[in-house]
Write a structure and sequence with these properties.
The chain contains ten helices and ten strands. The chain has 303 residues and is α/β, with parallel strands linked by helices. It folds into two domains: 158 residues, P-loop containing nucleotide triphosphate hydrolases (Rossmann fold, 3-Layer(aba) Sandwich), CATH 3.40.50.300; 119 residues, Histidine kinase-like ATPase, C-terminal domain (Heat Shock Protein 90, 2-Layer Sandwich). The chain has a five-stranded parallel sheet with strand order 1-5-4-2-3, sandwiched between helices. Strands 6-7-8-10-9 form a five-stranded antiparallel sheet, covered by helices on one side. The longest helix is centred in the N-terminal third of the chain and has 17 residues. The chain is elongated, with a radius of gyration of 21 Å. InterPro entries: Anti-sigma-factor_SerPK (IPR050267), HATPase_C_sf (IPR036890), HATPase_dom (IPR003594), MEDS_domain (IPR025847), RsbA-like_anti_sig (IPR047718). Keywords: Kinase, Serine/threonine-protein kinase, Transferase. This is Anti-sigma factor RsbA family regulatory protein.
């Protein structure tokens, strides 16, 4: 695996390990981590248990291991965890972290897969300028071909493209149609208490009893529509059988920020904090914006 020319200690290095056997994975991953150990980097492995078992004997006790299924829950939550730990430990006092990560692709539905493809591009934005060396592992025997096409476009040293271009392409996928019974309510300024009550009752009808995170997310998006969009909007609540879904419609407002809610808020840029919170509260947030307004789709999966 060639080193990246010009990559310094304060730069993000985001590479891919494309492997076809367990032996290849183990040798390449251990060599990558050994370089970091020699430079006194923090060492982290995020992978399925069988991959962790392959690497653990060759790594020091201080290496941090996390199982992929528990870590890669949603892209925003995974980003939030990494940024929090990075600020508190990995990057503190000029430190650097070296991570081997292998995603779980099997068992995810097409919408989830699309969002994890988006994550591959987001890594280059969220962690730009951080002291991070990231090696993402992909088993060529099992990873879907459409995923591999995104991998090639989002990792340094391959056919890299600007993250915004990849992100925008993923946004061209249409939202899935609403199904079954749909509860609808319009809203304007002063009607947020009623909208929260409506959301709670509709969510309960569709089987979501612990609905407070979704209610808070709906309230935040509706507030943004009133303040920064068209001043009024509509809420549609429905279920696909496995989740409660809320569509908030702004008929005139447009979202210009491609990465809205994905970038961690900072004290000097507080404007993105609301949508950051929304993405943490929901299992999935999809945004489609254009000449006919904006749709914010919030999904809360049923237990």
């Amino acid at each position: 695996m060639p080193a990246l020319l010009g990559a310094g200690r304060d730069s993000l290095i985001h590479q891919a390990l494309l492997y076809g056997s367990e032996t290849e994975f183990t040798e390449e991953a251990l060599a990558f981590l050994a370089e970091g150990r020699g430079a006194d980097d923090a060492l982290v492995v995020i992978a399925p248990p069988d991959r962790i078992d392959l690497l653990r004997p060759g790594l020091p006790p201080e290496c941090e291991f996390r199982e992929a299924a528990g870590y890669f829950t949603t892209p925003p939550r995974s980003i939030a965890t990494a940024v929090s730990v990075g600020r508190d430990r990995w990057w503190k006092d000029g430190g650097r972290v070296r991570v081997v990560a292998e995603q779980v692709w099997k068992g995810r539905d097409p919408v989830e897969v699309r969002e994890w493809k988006r994550f591959e591009a987001l890594v280059n934005v969220v962690f730009a300028g951080t002291r991070t060396s990231l090696l993402c592992a992909y088993d060529l025997r099992t990873v879907p071909s459409d995923v591999m096409r995104i991998v090639e476009r989002t990792h340094h040293g391959l056919d890299y493209e600007p993250p915004a271009r990849v992100y925008a392409e993923l946004d061209r996928a249409p939202l899935l149609p609403q199904t079954g019974q749909v509860a609808h309510r319009g809203f304007v300024r002063g009607e947020l208490p009623g909208l929260r009550d409506f959301t709670a009752k509709a969510a309960a009808v569709f089987g979501l009893t612990a609905a407070m995170p979704l209610i808070m997310a709906v309230n935040e998006v509706a507030t943004n529509i009133i303040k920064h969009g068209g001043g009024s909007g509509s809420l549609l609540v429905w279920s696909d059988g496995g989740a409660v879904i809320c569509d908030l419609l702004d008929p005139v407002g447009r979202v210009e920020d491609r990465f809205l809610g994905f970038l961690p808020p900072s004290p000097d840029q507080p404007s993105g904090a609301g949508m950051w919170m929304v993405r943490q509260l929901c299992d999935l947030v999809e945004i489609r914006s254009g000449g006919t307004g904006t749709i914010f789709r919030l999904t809360a999966r049923l237990p």
